[in-house]
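Sharing a chain and its predicted structure for anyone who wants a worked example. Both blocks are below, sequence first, tokens second.
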Amino acid sequence: TVVQSDELTFSLVGATCTVLGLELDKALYTFGRHFVTFALRSGNALLLKSQGATLHAFLANINNLHAHLERDHPNARFPFIESKYDPDQDVAEVTYLSVRSGLKPLVTGVIEEVGLRLYGVNVHFEEVPVPEDLTEAGAAGHAASWRISWRPRPGGPEPLEKLAAGAPQLPKMSFPVLHSAIVDMMRMIRSGNFLDACQCKPEAQKVPTEVTEVAIAGDSDEELSMGRSDSIRKANEVQNRNGMPLEHI
């Protein structure tokens, strides 16, 4: 992963606003919504949906999601989200804290799009004062708090295909397809002819740890119903067929 400096990123955002004639807050809000659809189109629907069956459960698990992503992106600086759900009023009190300033519109765009695409709800934000210990951070644009409510959207979640007719789909590979490709690759590597041509000897092979992460990344109904237990079973089948030690499952 290539990590760009914040200065370069914000310069790009500023240039985009200038060229398109957009206000900064509007551009950040739009990017936040686009980021969610990009993640879904990239094959991460199951990863996002696994964070909770409701929007308030998703909000409560965002920090866990960031911790998961941090394993692959150790240099990333994720924000901290605190969410407290009030079941009597069916609202969530959400506090956002980041090392970066001025990104509140991006956060509202992300949450609004998650509600629309994953949970079929229209989200309403009421900004409220930040906790007393975050007053200074809030004044500097590093923190914000909202009272978030939602209402069911007629028709349920908005399908991705309605975003842009004819828009090209991003390349993605489902877990079953990737699993099959890994099995074929290991069979080829272990074949005598391949090893002789490479002038190398077989050594203990390990299934890449990424296989466990791909197992929770997908956006089809078939993949969503697979579940973790089925993923473990398929991974164990690979181990039994090829005699490979399997870790981190």
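Comments welcome. The beta strands are 80-86, 91-97, 121-128, 143-152.
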